[in-house]
C-alpha cells in the first residue's frame, strides 16, 4: 500500500487517524500508541503478510538486546556488553545481508571462481535497509548508555511507525522515543494536523505530478541505453536531467509525506532534504541530500572508522569506505557501488581542494555571486553524472549514456527536443534552484526533533510554529492535493522503496 | 496587508471538503473515457460492454461486461442468465460465431432460452465458472467453445476483479454512471454540441441484456466488411489425445463445479483465419470424449473472419444454421427437446 494510492488515502489513513483519536479520547494514550503500532504493522503486512513476522521478530530481538546492553552497562560489564553489541549488530547485518545481498554475493562468487552455486530467489522485505539501520543505531547507543528506559510498545512504534517505516527518514531513537512521553504529542493537535495535511499535499504533488511525469522522460532513455541503443546528445542529457529531478521529487516528496503523516499524530520526524541541488559543493550536497542517511553513515561508520582524527590520508580512505558502503546500501549491484565510489571521490577532491585553499589562500574573501553559481553548476553536473550510474542497470548502459552526454555521438538530437520537454525541465530547474524547500515554506525547523537544550527550548516555546493556516495556504494545499489525487490513475512505486 | 488566519479546525475542515470534492471531480473528468466510444448502440436491451481506442494502442473505456457480472451491476442481464436453458461459453470468437439470428431462431423454435456468455480478452473457463457458481446457475445445456477455454492463463479483467481493490470497485461503478450519461447524451436528449464532444467513434461492443449477444460498432466501414478465409488446422490423433490429456484436469474440474447431473454438456471449436491462433478441432473432439461431453462441429464452406479472428456476420449466420442442425439430435439425445 503506497502513500500515493486510493486505498491508503481514502481507507487506511482516515481509519488509522480517526481510530487513534477516538481510542486516545475514550481510553488512554497507551492504547492509542498500541493502535498506531498495530496499524503500522498492518500497513507493513499489506505488502507481504508473512514478512510482518520478520519485522516483529527483529523488533523483539533488538529490544531485548538493547535491554541487555543497558543492564550490562549499569553493571559495569563493558567487555560482555561489547560482545553482546557485536552479536546484535552482526545479527542485524546478517539479516540484511541474507535478504539483500545473498544472491548478489553468490552471483559474484560464481563469476570469480567459476562455480555454479544457486540460491532460491529471495524476496527483499521492503524497508529492511531502513529499519535495520535504525535498530543498529539503537543498539550502539544502548551500549554507549545513551538510551533511556522505555516500554516495548514505545520501541515497537519507534521502529514500525508507518510514515517512516518503508523509506525513511532513518529516525534516531533520541528524536522519537522522548516525544512519546510529552504531553500534547500523540494527541489531536489541530495545528499539527493542518500543517501535516499541507506537508502531505506538497509531497503528494511532488510525487504524482512532478516525479511521475519526469519518469516518462527519463525511463525510455535509460531503457534504451541499457538495451544498447546509441543515444543522441540531447536525449542523453534530457534523460539524465529528468532522472535527476525525478529522484529528487520522488524521494523528497515521500519524505514530505512522511513528515506530514507523522504530524497528524503530533509527532515530528527529522528532515531528509534541504534543497540539495542548491549545494555549492559535494560536501554540502551530502548535508542536504538524504540527510538522515548521511548522519547515520557519519556517526556510525565514518567516525568509528577514525573520521578525520588519524591524518589526511586515513580520512580520505575513511570517506571512500563510507561512500562505497553507502552505495552498496542502496542496492545489490556494482553500479550502486560505483555511484558511491564516485561520490567518495568527489568528496576526497572537495576536502583536498579545501585543504589546498586553506594552505595557499587562507585569507581569500567569500565567493562572488558568479563564483557561487559556477560552483553550484559544477556540483550539479557532478551529481547528474553520478545519477547515471545510480539509474542504469548495466555498465554498458552507463557507458552509452555518458558517451552520448559527452558528445561521442556528436551534438545530435537538439532539433527533436519538444517545447513541452524543455518547459518541464525548466520547471524542474526553477523549483529545485529557485524555490524554498518544503520545511522552509512551512517553518518546520530542522532542529525541532534534534537533541540538545536549544531544541528543547524550541520545543517548549513552540517557536517552530511559524506557519499559519491562512486562506492562500488553504487554496494552495487543497488545489495541489486535488490535482494529485485526481491524477492517481496509475500508481507508481517510490524509487526508494526498493532500497 | 496581513493575510487572514483561519483557525486550524476550520482549515482542516475546509481542506477536506474542498479536496474531496475537487479531487473527485478531477478524477471523474480524467476517467470519463467513454467519451471516445460509439454511442449509437444503446437501447433498453443493450448496454456498452467494451470499447477501445480506434488506433488499438490503449483500452479507452475498456472492459465493462466482466465487472457487470462480477459486481451484479445489471439485474436484468443476471436474471436472464439465470433463466437461460442454454448457456454458451467461450472467448470473443464464440460471441461472434454464436451471435446469429439463425441460432437464436433455432432456440426459440425449440422453446429454449439461450444466453451467450463469452467474453473478450480471450477469456477462458475461470471467470465464467466463477460466475456460474456465484449465481447458482445450472442450465439444461452448456455449450463450450473449447478454443483456448481450458487454459491456466488468468485474463487481465479477471485478475483485476479477483484482487477486488477499492479502485476496481469504484472504477466499474463509475463505468455504470458513465454509461448512463453517455446514453443520455448520445441518444440526442442533451443537444448536438454535447453529443459532438462526448460521443466518439472508437471500436465499441454493445451487449444484449436479453441473451448476451454482441453488437459491434466501427469494426468495419458500413457495407465493407473485410473477409479473411477461415483456416481449419488438424493434428494427428496422437497429438490431439496428448494435448487433451493435459487439458483434462481443468475440464473435469469445470464439469464437477458447474455441470449438473442432468445438464447436457456440448463441446465445439470455432474456427478462425489465423494459423497461429487456429485451434485444431481434433483436440476439442478428444477432450469431449475424455470428459464425456457431446461434440458438435459444423464445417460449412466459405466462412470468413473480418479481422483474422472473428467471424463476419454473414459467416456467423451460416455457422449458426449448421451448428443448429448438428445440435438438434444432441438435444434430443439429452432429453432437452423431447416433450412429455
Description:
The complex is a heterodimer of chains A (499) and B (340). Chain A has helices at 6-26, 29-47, 51-74, 78-113, 128-143, 152-160, 162-165, 173-180, 190-226, 233-264, 282-288, 291-302, 312-330, 334-360, 369-391, 395-405, 419-434, 438-442, 453-461, 471-486. Chain A has 499 residues and is mainly α. Chain A is globular. Chain B has 340 residues and is α/β, with parallel strands linked by helices. Helices cover 45% and strands 13% of the residues of chain B. Chain B has 12 helices and 11 strands. Chain B has helices at 8-30, 65-71, 75-83, 92-97, 101-109, 126-134, 156-163, 166-186, 192-198, 237-258, 281-291, 313-334; strands spanning 46-52, 62-63, 86-90, 114-118, 141-145, 203-208, 214-217, 228-229, 264-268, 294-295, 304-305. In chain B, the strands form 3 sheets. A 5-stranded parallel β-sheet of chain B has the order 4-3-5-9-10, with helices on both faces. In chain B, α5 (101-109) runs parallel beside α12 (313-334).
> Describe the biggest sheet of chain A?
none
Query: Quick one: how many beta strands of chain B?
Result: 11
Oligomer: heterodimer
Number of strands of chain A: 0
- Provide the low-confidence segments of chain B as ranges: none
Please count the helical segments of chain B: 12
Structural class of chain A: mainly alpha
* Shape type of chain B: globular
Tell me the β content of chain B. 5-15%
Name the chain pair with the biggest interface and residue counts per chain.
Answer: A-B, 31 and 28 residues
Rg of chain B, rounded, reads 23 Å
Summarize the structure.
The complex is a heterodimer of chains A (499) and B (340). Chain A is mainly α and 499 residues long.
Notable characteristics:
heterodimer, A: 499 residues, mainly alpha, globular, B: alpha/beta, five-stranded parallel beta sheet
Provide the fold topology.
The complex is a heterodimer of chains A (499) and B (340).
Chain A (H helix, E strand, L loop, with lengths): L5 H21 L2 H19 L3 H24 L3 H36 L14 H16 L8 H9 L1 H4 L7 H8 L9 H37 L6 H32 L17 H7 L2 H12 L9 H19 L3 H27 L8 H23 L3 H11 L13 H16 L3 H5 L10 H9 L9 H16 L13
Helix pairs in contact in A: 1-2, 2-6, 3-4, 3-5, 3-6, 4-5, 9-10, 9-16, 9-20, 10-15, 10-16, 10-17, 12-13, 13-14, 14-15
Chain B lengths: L7 H23 L15 E7 L9 E2 L1 H7 L3 H9 L2 E5 L1 H6 L3 H9 L4 E5 L7 H9 L6 E5 L10 H8 L2 H21 L5 H7 L4 E6 L5 E4 L10 E2 L7 H22 L5 E5 L12 H11 L2 E2 L8 E2 L7 H22 L6
Parallel strand pairs in B: 3-4, 3-5, 5-9, 9-10
Antiparallel strand pairs in B: 1-2, 1-6, 6-7, 8-11
Amino acid at each position: 500500500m503506497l502513500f500515493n494510492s486510493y486505498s491508503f488515502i481514502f481507507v487506511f489513513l482516515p481509519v488509522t487517524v480517526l481510530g487513534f483519536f477516538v481510542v486516545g479520547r475514550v481510553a488512554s494514550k497507551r492504547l492509542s500508541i498500541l493502535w498506531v503500532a498495530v496499524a503500522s504493522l498492518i500497513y507493513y503486512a499489506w505488502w507481504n503478510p508473512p514478512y510482518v513476522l520478520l519485522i516483529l521478530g527483529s523488533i523483539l530481538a533488538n529490544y531485548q538486546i538493547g535491554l541487555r546492553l543497558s543492564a550490562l552497562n549499569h553493571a559495569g560489564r563493558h567487555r560482555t556488553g561489547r560482545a553482546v553489541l557485536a552479536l546484535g549488530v552482526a545479527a542485524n547485518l546478517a539479516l540484511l545481508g541474507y535478504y539483500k545481498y545473498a544472491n548478489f554475493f553468490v552471483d559474484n562468487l560464481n563469476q570469480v571462481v567459476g562455480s555454479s552455486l544457486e540460491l532460491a530467489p529471495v524476496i527483499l522485505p521492503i524497508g529492511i535497509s531502513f529499519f535495520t539501520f535504525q535498530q543498529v543505531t539503537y543498539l550502539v547507543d544502548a551500549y554507549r548508555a545513551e538510551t533511556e528506559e522505555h516500554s516495548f510498545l514505545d520501541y515497537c512504534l519507534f521502529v514500525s511507525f508507518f510514515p517512516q517505516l518503508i523509506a525513511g527518514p532513518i529516525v534516531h531513537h533520541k528524536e522519537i522515543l522522548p516525544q512519546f512521553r510529552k504531553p500534547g504529542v500523540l494527541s489531536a493537535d489541530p495545528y499539527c494536523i493542518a500543517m501535516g495535511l499541507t506537508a502531505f499535499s506538497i509531497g503528494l504533488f511532488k510525487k504524482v505530478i512532478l516525479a511521475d511525469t519526469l519518469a516518462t522522460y527519463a525511463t525510455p532513455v535509460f531503457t534504451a541505453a541499457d538495451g544498447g541503443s546509441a543515444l543522441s546528445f540531447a536525449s542523453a542529457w534530457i534523460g539524465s536531467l529528468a532522472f535527476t529531478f525525478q529522484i529528487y521529487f520522488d524521494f523528497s516528496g515521500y519524505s514530505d509525506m512522511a513528515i506530514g503523516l507523522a504530524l497528524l499524530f503530533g509527532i515530528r520526524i527529522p528532515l531528509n532534504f534541504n534543497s540539495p541541488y542548491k549545494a555549492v559543493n559535494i560536501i554540502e550536497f551530502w548535508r542536504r541530500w538524504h540527510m538522515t542517511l548521511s548522519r547515520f553513515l557519519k556517526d556510525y561508520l565514518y567516525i568509528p572508522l577514525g573520521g578525520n582524527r588519524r591524518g589526511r590520508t586515513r580520512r580520505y580512505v575513511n570517506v571512500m569506505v563510507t561512500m562505497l558502503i553507502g552505495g552498496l546500501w542502496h542496492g545489490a549491484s556494482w553500479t550502486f557501488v560505483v555511484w558511491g565510489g564516485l561520490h567518495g571521490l568527489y568528496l576526497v577532491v572537495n576536502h583536498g581542494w579545501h585543504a589546498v585553499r586553506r594552505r595557499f589562500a587562507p585569507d581569500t574573501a567569500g565567493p562572488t555571486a558568479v563564483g557561487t553559481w559556477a560552483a553550484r553548476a559544477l556540483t550539479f553536473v557532478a551529481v547528474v553524472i553520478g545519477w547515471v550510474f545510480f539509474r542504469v542497470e548495466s555498465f554498458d548502459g552507463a557507458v552509452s549514456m555518458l558517451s552520448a552526454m559527452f558528445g561521442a555521438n556528436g551534438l545530435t538530437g537538439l532539433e527533436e527536443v519538444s517545447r513541452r520537454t524543455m518547459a518541464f525541465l525548466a520547471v524542474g530547474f526553477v523549483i529545485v534552484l529557485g524555490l524554498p524547500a518544503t520545511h522552509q515554506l512551512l517553518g518546520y525547523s530542522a532542529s525541532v526533533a534534534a537533541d540538545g537544550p536549544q531544541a528543547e527550548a524550541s520545543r517548549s516555546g513552540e517557536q517552530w510554529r511559524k506557519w499559519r493556516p491562512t486562506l492562500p495556504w488553504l487554496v494552495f494545499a487543497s488545489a495541489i492535493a486535488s490535482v494529485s489525487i485526481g491524477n492517481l490513475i496509475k500508481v507508481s512505486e517510490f524509487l526508494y522503496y526498493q532500497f | 496587508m496581513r493575510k487572514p488566519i483561519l483557525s486550524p479546525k476550520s482549515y482542516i475542515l475546509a481542506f477536506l471538503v474542498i479536496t474531496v470534492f475537487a479531487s473527485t471531480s478531477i478524477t471523474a473528468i480524467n476517467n470519463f473515457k467513454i467519451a471516445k466510444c460509439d454511442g449509437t448502440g444503446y437501447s433498453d436491451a443493450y448496454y456498452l460492454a467494451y470499447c477501445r481506442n480506434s488506433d488499438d494502442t490503449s483500452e479507452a473505456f475498456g472492459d465493462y461486461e466482466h465487472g457487470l457480472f462480477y459486481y451484479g451491476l445489471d439485474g436484468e442481464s443476471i436474471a436472464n442468465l439465470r433463466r437461460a436453458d442454454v448457456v454458451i461459453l467461450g472467448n470473443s470468437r464464440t460471441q461472434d460465431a454464436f451471435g446469429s439470428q439463425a441460432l437464436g431462431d433455432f432456440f426459440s423454435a425449440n422453446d429454449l432460452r439461450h444466453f451467450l456468455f463469452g467474453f473478450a480478452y480471450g477469456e477462458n473457463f475461470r471467470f465464467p465458472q466463477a460466475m456460474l457458481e456465484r449465481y447458482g446457475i445450472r442450465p439444461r445445456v452448456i455449450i463450450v467453445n473449447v478454443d483456448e477455454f481450458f487454459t491456466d492463463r488468468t485474463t487481465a479483467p479477471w485478475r483485476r476483479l479477483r484482487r477486488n481493490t477499492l479502485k476496481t470497485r469504484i472504477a466499474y461503478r463509475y463505468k455504470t454512471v458513465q454509461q448512463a450519461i453517455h446514453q443520455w447524451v448520445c441518444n440526442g436528449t442533451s443537444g448536438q454540441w454535447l453529443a459532438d464532444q462526448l460521443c466518439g467513434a472508437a471500436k465499441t461492443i454493445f451487449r444484449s441484456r436479453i441473451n448476451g449477444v454482441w453488437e459491434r460498432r466501427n469494426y468495419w466501414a458500413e457495407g465493407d466488411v473485410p473477409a479473411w478465409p477461415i483456416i481449419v488446422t488438424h493434428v494427428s490423433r496422437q497429438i490431439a489425445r496428448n494435448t487433451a490429456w493435459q487439458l483434462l484436469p481443468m475440464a473435469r474440474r469445470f464439469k464437477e463445479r458447474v455441470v449438473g447431473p442432468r445438464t447436457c454438456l456440448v463441446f465445439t471449436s470455432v474456427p478462425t483465419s489465423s494459423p497461429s491462433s487456429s485451434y485444431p478441432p481434433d483436440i476439442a473432439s478428444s477432450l469431449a470424449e475424455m470428459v464425456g461431453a457431446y461434440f458438435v462441429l459444423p464445417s460449412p464452406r466459405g466462412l470468413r473472419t473480418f479481422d483474422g479472428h472473428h467471424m463476419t456476420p454473414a459467416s456467423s449466420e451460416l455457422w449458426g444454421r449448421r451448428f443448429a442442425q448438428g445440435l438438434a439430435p444432441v438435444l434430443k439425445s439429452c432429453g432437452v427437446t423431447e416433450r412429455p
